C-alpha cells in the first residue's frame, strides 16, 4: 500500500522582500526570476521528486499546496512542468484540493486561467491590507485596486474557492480601521480569510524602523481587533476554525487541516519541511533555506537528509496538543491519552478547572478546546498543559 501525504512545493522567488517578512525567499526584481535560475530550480525540484518517489513510492495525496515566496511568479510554463512532474511520480487524487499562493501584482488573468486549467482549484491571495498607506508601509508591491482586480480576475478564471490573507495590528492602525478592512474583504465575497497579527521579526527592515514600532497598536487594541474582528466575520457567515483562519461552511483549507492534525506532509523546494512515516517510524526534515545549498543537497542524491530527526511518541503527542488546541475542533482527549499514557483530565485536573473557570478553555468529556479569549493567550495555555514540567498559574 502506498504512503499517503499532503504535498507541498516551495516557490522561493519574490519580486522584493516585504518589510516584515522573515520567511525564506529569493528576491528577483520586477522582472521575476531570471530564466537560468528558474531552470536550475525546476531541474533540482524534479531531482528531489525522483529521490522521494524512490523512497516512498507513488505517494497518494488529497491536497497540494504551492507556497512561497510568490508562486504566481513561476509563470505558466514552469507551473505546467511542475504539475506534470508531480503527476508522473505521485498519485494526486482527481478531486484533490490544489492551492496556489499569489500576490495581486503577479496574478495576471492569463496566468490564473492557465493555473485553473492545470488543476489548481484554490487560490490564496496575499492581499494583507486594502489600505494603500498600510500597503506602502509594509513594502507590498501592489495597491488596493490591484488586489480587487486580482480577485475579480480569479473569479473570471473559474476559481470558486478563493482565500485572502490579511494582517492586523499595523503601525498607525486603529480598531475601526481593521474592522473596515474586514468589511471591505467580506464585500468581495471570498470563501476563506486568514487574519494574522503582525509579528515584528528580528532582522527585518520593520524591526529597525523606530517610527513604525512606536506607531504599533498596544496589546489591548490588538486584542480588541482580534475579538471584534472574529465576531464580525462569524456574523458574516465565516466559521472561526483555527486561531487565524475563517471559512465559509465546507471551505476550510484541507491542506492546513491535514498539517494541524499531524498528518504526513512531503515537501519540495528550499526551506520546505516534511514529516513522513516509513516502516512505522515518523521522521522530520527541513530543506536548507538557500537555493544553492538546497540544489547541492538534492543533486547529490541526499534529499531528505538535512536536519533529519526521528519523532518519538512524546514529541508527536506534544505536537498533537499544540496543533489541536489551535483549531476549533480542539484536542481529542481519549486519543491523546492513548498515545501518551497521560490523561490530561487527571494529570492537569486543577489547571483545567482553573482555565475553564476564567473562560480560557471549554472542557467536554472527550474534547478540550480554547475559547476565543483563550486563543489570545494560546501559547501560555499550551505551555502550561504540555510544554513545561510544571503547570503555570494563569490567574
Keyword list:
single chain, 395 residues, alpha/beta, pyruvate-formate lyase- activating enzyme, Arc Repressor Mutant, subunit A, 2 domains, nine-stranded mixed sheet, 42% helix, disordered C terminus
Structure description:
The chain is an alpha/beta fold. The chain has two domains: 6-258, tm_1862 like domain (pyruvate-formate lyase- activating enzyme, Alpha-Beta Horseshoe); 313-387, Arc Repressor Mutant, subunit A (Orthogonal Bundle), CATH 1.10.10. The chain has helices at 35-56, 76-89, 109-117, 132-138, 144-156, 175-188, 210-214, 219-235, 254-260, 291-299, 313-324, 333-340, 344-347, 349-357, 372-376, 378-387; strands at 6-11, 13-14, 26-27, 60-68, 91-102, 122-128, 162-168, 192-197, 239-242, 245-247, 265-268, 273-278, 281-286, 309-310, 331-332, 361-363, 367-370. A nine-stranded mixed β-sheet has the order 9-10-8-7-6-5-4-1-11, with helices on both faces. A three-stranded antiparallel β-sheet has the order 12-13-14, with no helix packed on it. It has a three-stranded antiparallel β-sheet with strand order 15-17-16. Strand 9 (239-242) and strand 10 form a beta hairpin. Helix 1 packs across helix 10 and helix 6 packs parallel to helix 8 (219-235).
Amino acid at each position: 500500500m502506498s504512503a499517503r501525504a499532503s504535498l507541498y512545493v516551495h516557490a522561493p522567488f519574490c519580486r522584493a522582500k516585504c518589510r516584515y517578512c522573515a520567511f525564506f525567499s529569493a528576491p528577483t526584481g520586477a522582472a521575476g526570476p531570471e530564466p537560468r535560475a528558474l531552470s536550475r530550480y525546476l531541474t533540482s525540484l524534479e531531482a528531489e521528486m525522483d529521490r522521494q518517489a524512490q523512497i516512498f513510492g507513488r505517494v497518494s495525496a488529497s491536497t497540494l499546496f504551492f507556497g512561497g515566496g510568490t508562486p504566481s511568479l513561476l509563470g505558466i510554463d514552469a507551473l505546467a512542468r511542475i504539475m506534470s512532474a508531480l503527476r508522473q511520480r505521485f498519485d494526486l487524487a482527481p478531486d484533490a484540493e490544489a492551492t496556489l499562493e499569489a500576490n495581486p501584482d503577479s496574478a495576471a488573468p492569463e496566468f490564473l486561467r492557465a493555473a485553473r486549467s492545470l488543476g489548481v482549484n484554490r487560490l490564496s491571495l496575499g492581499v494583507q491590507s486594502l489600505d494603500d498607506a498600510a500597503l506602502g508601509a509594509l513594502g507590498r508591491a501592489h495597491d488596493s485596486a490591484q488586489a480587487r482586480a486580482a480577485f475579480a480576475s480569479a473569479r473570471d478564471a473559474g476559481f470558486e474557492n478563493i482565500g485572502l490573507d490579511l494582517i492586523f495590528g499595523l503601525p498607525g492602525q486603529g480598531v475601526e480601521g481593521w474592522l473596515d478592512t474586514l468589511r471591505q474583504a467580506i464585500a468581495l465575497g471570498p470563501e476563506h480569510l486568514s487574519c494574522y497579527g503582525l509579528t515584528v521579526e528580528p532582522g527585518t527592515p520593520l524591526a529597525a524602523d523606530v517610527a513604525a514600532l512606536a506607531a504599533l497598536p498596544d496589546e489591548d487594541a490588538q486584542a480588541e481587533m482580534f475579538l471584534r474582528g472574529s465576531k464580525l466575520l462569524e456574523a458574516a457567515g465565516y466559521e472561526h476554525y483555527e486561531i487565524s483562519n475563517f471559512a465559509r461552511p465546507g471551505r476550510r483549507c484541507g491542506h492546513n487541516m491535514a498539517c494541524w492534525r499531524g498528518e504526513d506532509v512531503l515537501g519540495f523546494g528550499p526551506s520546505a519541511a516534511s514529516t513522513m512515516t516509513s516502516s512505522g517510524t515518523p521522521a522530520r526534515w527541513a530543506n536548507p533555506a538557500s537555493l544553492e545549498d538546497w540544489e547541492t543537497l538534492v543533486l547529490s542524491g541526499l534529499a531528505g537528509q538535512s536536519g533529519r530527526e526521528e519523532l518519538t511518541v512524546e514529541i508527536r503527542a506534544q505536537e498533537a496538543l499544540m496543533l489541536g488546541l489551535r483549531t476549533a475542533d480542539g484536542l481529542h482527549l481519549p486519543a491523546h491519552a492513548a498515545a501518551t499514557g497521560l490523561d490530561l483530565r487527571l494529570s492537569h485536573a486543577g489547571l483545567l478547572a482553573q482555565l475553564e473557570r476564567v473562560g480560557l478553555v471549554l472542557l467536554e468529556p472527550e474534547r478540550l478546546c480554547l475559547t476565543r479569549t483563550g486563543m489570545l493567550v494560546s501559547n501560555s495555555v499550551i505551555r502550561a498543559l504540555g510544554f513545561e514540567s510544571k503547570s503555570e498559574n494563569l490567574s
